[in-house]
Design goal:
The complex is a heterodimer of chains A (about 350) and B (about 325). In chain A, about 35% of the residues lie in helices and about 20% in strands. With about 350 residues, chain A is α/β, with parallel strands linked by helices. Chain A has a domain of about 70 residues. In chain A, the strands form two sheets. Chain A has an eight-stranded mixed β-sheet, with helices on both faces. In chain A, strands 1, 2, 3, 5 and 6 form a five-stranded antiparallel β-sheet that branches. The longest helix of chain A has 18 residues. About 0% of the residues of chain A have low confidence. Chain B folds into two domains: about 220 residues, 3-Layer(aba) Sandwich (Rossmann fold); about 90 residues, no CATH class. In chain B, the strands form two sheets. An eight-stranded mixed β-sheet of chain B has the order 6-7-8-3-9-10-12-11, with helices on both faces. In chain B, a hairpin with a 2-residue loop joins strand 9 and strand 10. The N terminus of chain B is likely disordered. Classes of the chains: A alpha/beta (about 350), B alpha/beta (about 325). Chains A and B meet through helix 8, helix 9 and helix 11 of A and helix 6, helix 7 and helix 8 of B.
């Protein structure tokens, strides 16, 4: 039964062209995303594919201008629907906060914990600021009790001492946990974690991922994990979205990705093959980055890298031209699995 | 691989390297290290274990408190600052944060042109063509006039890698060159590094990602609190192989792989006497020994040596690799 806590319809985000071109370029192209309540959704894709921009836009913290240009988003924190005021160009939304949503209903763990902590404030004060968003009018002693509770929840040893530390006194793994504690302290219904395990050693990575999963189960919280670490995703995901150059090229439940079944998008296969190759110590598949994507925007976003077009089997030899010129339709191998690829939709 | 054979020449030889930061913490503590021509040496360990400091000591970016580094047979400490600057062309470092090691005011092209001017003056007349060649090789076509802030993380990283390889170094210390990159760009950066100079550049490859290290390196060093606690062929760094003995710390790292067959839980850090004075620095978190064990006194009093377990595999642990004198 579908019970999304947040969903979008045909969301477009555009930003100024970094090469100085006149018209804004689309970095999120018609995203339809549904985050199920109490489930872990993973958003995977390579750097620059628009993962972070999409989520920031949804939570109204988009710094990218011009910003969201089309689409709708709805949040259902407690079953009733609220429109998410998607931010347009900044001058038009300044001063308008998320009116109908409880402050702190969504928590965000940013990509670089060391950048998202205030270097001049002690850890305890930063977590305390979050606590007061969820509960106004607490006495200082009550705030402190809750701060220690959250530091303990994220398995920081000796929370009393950690609360007194400044961010520069924390190791990478500790800073990451503090960032998670800050996000949790507003008691969010939805937690967005943007690559929370980057740059951590395996032991800490495992701890953080297990901790996030445990918190979801214990608190009924929904988790959106943005990652490009397929090993992490395989470990924790209930639902997956695969993003490539601004487009969600595939989504489906876990079994669609990690159990044998009908076709996956060739880009998903590329990601999986790379991850598996490294695990097995073999050489990762060659990448043909030299080919540039077509600038027209027509056709499949993956066409310039697709191995099925570059080295087509005899049956697929006619595909290349269509893939480059026609925007591929969505193909549904099963009711909850969607692949945006002509070749997958027309098995030969 | 081929680099392992003893006849290929030593690029770098370090003996007894130590460095203590103000405040008294030994970041690097008595490290010996040899790197041969074209060899890729992986260096793994938790944050704060001294990996980056060791890399900087090897290049004399930080002079060591004690110990010597010989680069291509020359003792770096005996070189005049000017001579040392000249050796810089042949020993390069890729710093951890690519964005921070690029000058925000210079374009990609200017970064590379400057490198040619400084490190390859003989090629200065064809700098323009050389930069274009490099940009093509690193798939940065069309980015020449852009500033670092206009590049994606992967592109910044490629600029840094391109810049460090342009002087044709014989040794490159790469400090987490793939952290935060997605799988495709990561594979790309790894391949660019491996193929540098037709495999004649030796690397110290520092990383958290054990699978990447196993793929890239010939030999892997594990560092814990400033010491090398294990040295092994890269193939031994396999989470699914439970036959091979490892240092307890390596064991814990490997068992944290998602596909590992069993997870080694580290006990809560035990309060112990000054860990840096004597004994094994891992004993406070070790699952192989406890204060009640008969072995504890040895672990807390004597610093274990690197003892060979088998060819090319040495471990510094009283429990896993007792030294021959203790065993007798």
């Amino acid at each position: 039964m579908s019970d999304p806590i947040l969903f979008t319809r045909d969301l477009w985000v555009r930003v100024h062209d970094p090469n100085g071109g006149g018209s804004p370029i689309a970095v999120v192209r018609g995203a339809n995303i549904e985050l199920q309540r109490g489930a872990t959704t993973c958003l995977v894709g390579e750097s620059g594919s628009g993962k972070t921009v999409l989520m920031r836009a949804l939570l109204g913290i988009s710094g990218a201008r011009p910003g969201v240009t089309a689409g709708t988003a709805w949040a259902r924190p407690d079953g009733s629907e609220f429109p998410v005021p998607l931010v347009g160009p900044r001058k038009r939304w300044r001063g308008r906060a998320l009116p109908s949503l409880r402050p702190g209903w969504a928590g965000y763990v940013f990509q670089h914990p060391s950048h998202s902590l205030d270097p001049l404030l002690r850890v305890g004060d930063q977590v305390g600021a979050s606590v007061t968003i969820a509960h106004s009018g607490l006495t200082p002693a009550a705030v402190k009790r809750r701060v220690l509770h959250w530091l303990e929840t994220v398995h920081l040893p000796n929370p009393e001492a950690v609360a007194q530390l400044f961010p520069h006194e924390l190791s990478g793994g500790m800073a990451q946990r503090v960032a998670i504690a800050i996000a949790l302290a507003t008691e969010p219904d939805l937690l967005v974690a943007d690559e929370p395990t980057t740059g951590l050693d395996w032991s800490v990575r495992r701890d953080i991922v297990d901790l996030l999963g445990e918190l979801c189960r214990a608190r009924g919280m929904s988790l959106l994990l943005i990652s490009h670490d397929f090993q992490v995703v395989e470990h924790i995901a209930d639902q997956l979205y695969v993003m490539f150059r601004g487009e969600l090229v595939e989504d489906g439940p876990r079994r669609a990705f990690f159990e044998p079944g009908p076709g996956s998008h060739p880009y998903t296969r590329e990601l999986q093959a790379r991850s598996r190759a490294l695990e097995e110590g073999s050489s990762p598949p060659r990448l043909h980055l030299a080919e540039q994507p077509t600038s027209s925007g027509a056709g499949c976003v993956y066409a310039h890298r697709c191995p099925w077009i570059r080295e087509p089997s005899p049956e697929r030899s006619a595909l290349g031209e269509r893939c480059r010129s026609v925007r591929p339709p969505d193909f549904r191998p099963s009711s909850d699995h969607r692949v945006r690829c002509i070749a997958v939709g027309e098995p030969t | 691989m081929s680099a392992q054979n003893a006849s290929s020449s030593l690029v770098l030889q370090a003996k007894g390297l130590s460095h203590r930061f103000p405040g008294g913490v030994a970041a690097v503590n008595g490290v010996d290290l040899e790197i041969r021509e074209g060899e890729v040496v992986g260096l793994v360990g938790e944050s704060g274990s001294g990996k980056t400091t060791l890399g900087k000591l090897l290049l004399h970016i930080i002079p060591p408190d004690t110990g010597r580094v010989a680069f291509e047979g020359q003792d770096l400490a005996e070189l005049s600052p000017r001579e040392r600057r000249r050796t810089r062309s042949r020993m390069q470092m890729i710093y951890q944060t690519a964005a921070a090691s690029l000058n925000p005011g210079l374009t990609v092209g200017q970064h590379l042109e400057e490198t040619v001017r400084l490190h390859r003056p003989e090629d200065a007349h064809r700098a323009d063509a050389l930069v274009d060649e490099t940009l093509t090789a690193f798939r940065l076509n069309g980015k020449r006039a852009l500033h670092p802030s206009q590049l994606s993380g992967g592109e910044q990283r490629r600029v840094v890698v391109a810049r460090s390889l342009l002087p044709r170094p014989s040794l490159l210390v790469a400090d987490e060159p793939t952290a935060g990159l997605d799988a495709s760009v990561k594979a790309d950066v790894i391949d660019l590094l491996r193929n540098a100079r037709g495999g004649r550049t030796a690397f110290l490859f520092i990383s958290h990602e054990l699978d990447v290290v196993r793929y890239v390196a010939d030999r892997v060093l594990v560092m814990y609190r400033g010491r090398i606690v294990e040295c092994m062929p890269a193939a031994a760094l396999d989470p699914r192989d439970t036959e091979v003995d490892h240092h307890p710390y390596t064991e814990r790292l490997l068992s944290a792989a998602f596909k590992a067959t069993r997870r080694v839980e580290s006990p809560m850090i035990r309060p112990t006497e000054d860990l840096f004075k004597a004994g094994c620095s891992y004993r406070a978190a070790c699952h192989r020994t406890e204060p009640d064990d008969p072995s504890w006194s040895r672990c807390s009093q004597h610093t274990p040596d690197l003892i060979p377990l088998r060819a090319g595999h040495r471990v510094s642990c009283h429990v896993v690799a007792p030294s021959p004198t203790e065993a007798s």
